[in-house]
Amino acid sequence: MTHLPRRISEIYFYVIPVLFLFGLFSCKPHENNDVLLKFSTPIINFDTVFTSVGSVTKLFTVHNPSNSEIKTTIFLAGKGSFYSINVDGEWKKENYFKNVVIPKKDSIFIFVQVNIDPADKDNPFLITDSIVFLTGQNIQDVKLLAYGQDARYIIADKKTGFKVVAGENETVRWTKERPYVVYGWAAIDSLGALIIESGTRVYFHNNSGLWAYRGSYLKVDGTLDDPVSFRGDRLESWYDKDYAQWNRIWINEGADADINFAIISNAFIGVQVDPFYPNGQPVPVTINSLVKIENTIIKNTKHCGVMSRFLNVDMTNCLIYNNGASSVRLEGGKYTLKHITISNDFIQAERKDPACYVSNLVIGYYNYPDIPMDIKADFINCIITGRNETEVIVNKKSEEELTTSFQNCLIKSKNSSEYFIETILNKDPLFQDKEKLNFQLKPDSPAIGKGKPNIGVLEDILGKIRKNPPDIGAYESQ
């Protein structure tokens, strides 16, 4: 391995603390009804890579912070669980321990064992349960997580932070027979190629990602009926609103990428396209490589949905929603976006960035001073809406060229702009059911039949034939 750098400290890593919500339910009064136990960990994660029938034991402590002895009842929530528990040295077949005494200012040990045959395809991919603690009127729990099926594990080198999955002049295929679980960065080397076939599921551990290094090739070859899924490896419902479970898909200069029919969810950034300059001042150059993203959903990101700097990206028939910063952020480079639906109603925190940001100034790149860079960005037949008053900002801050247009788009903006051409302003696109994440158009939507015709997009994201003139956005109405 000669082309990838020996360190990736330049990559921005973000750790999002895991949040757990504990419900309170009424029960009979108890002498300890105001005491909340303290746990050495809120979650027991069996990260062990199972290669055969796996029996693994872990432990944690339960602390009584009060000045008096308390009693608590402990049991597994699930019926027929893969887990068993040992409370203070005692195993019970039924995994139910009534009135366990914890002395004042003291702790007890709980051992947790999981026994799984990962070759059993009837197991769920991820096996979950919880240990419940009833202390007076308080109900608390500790979550349990373990992989239940055999998967292909990609474990990064601890020193470099990455593992090469396609080396120089090597073509590797990922298939759907077993899921892939990535710890760290899965890297495609220069002149290497990774082809991800339809139906493949890729799960990323915290701070992990897929890295298409300089001069590599990435093809995500999903289909309408069998898309490729990229998401975090935490599948429980309490993680659904954790919008930074993994890092991103990162594509460098000179790398060609073709992403078709993918679902990219709950990353810090969905797709980031920019050069890798770890050891010196970046010099903007024209890069002929192209990243194509088609028929793809990018959702629930802590930062941007798509962020690109300096390079070239084409997007067609894509849905991007719920992003903590811009859904699309373009700084320098060349871009064509056709039939994109952007609906940024992120509510986890205040969002100051617009849903769509276009600039000829690259800001904060590797902590260098702002870098002027020509940009050409054409948006055709796109819906760009969200919670903010203005969801499109074009930022011209240097003498470099800025050429952009929004043709036959539906845009939410309190200001008109010279860049808007035949554009519908500040009208509700009338999605079928935004609360249920159905972004197809109602029959009376102002976006119906208002697209620019003959732009070479014959079908929508669901394979429906486009009318002439077509509807605006990723979806064509019936």
Explain what you see.
- With 478 residues, this protein is mainly beta.
- It has 3 domains: 1-20 and 151-268, no CATH class; 38-147, Immunoglobulin-like (Sandwich), CATH 2.60.40.2310; 309-478, no CATH class.
- The protein has a 19-stranded parallel beta sheet that branches. It has a 9-stranded parallel beta sheet with strand order 12-15-18-21-24-27-29-31-36, with no helix packed on it.
- A hairpin with a 4-residue loop joins strand 41 (431-433) and strand 42 (438-441).
- It is elongated, with a radius of gyration of 25 Å.
Key structural traits:
42 strands; Immunoglobulin-like; single chain; 9-stranded parallel sheet; elongated; 3 domains; 19-stranded parallel sheet; 478 residues; mainly beta
Quick gist of this model?
This protein is 0% helix and 44% strand. By secondary structure, the protein is an all-beta fold.
Q: Structural class, from secondary structure content?
A: mainly beta
Rg over CA atoms: 25 Å
Number of strands: 42
List the total number of helices: 0
Please state the overall shape, judged from the principal axes of the Cα atoms: elongated
Helix content, binned percent = under 10%
Number of domains: 3
For the largest beta-sheet, the strand count, sense and barrel status come to: 19 strands, parallel
Mean pLDDT equals: 88
Measured by DSSP, the beta-strand proportion falls in 35-45%
Distance between the termini: 52 Å
Unreliable runs: 5-30
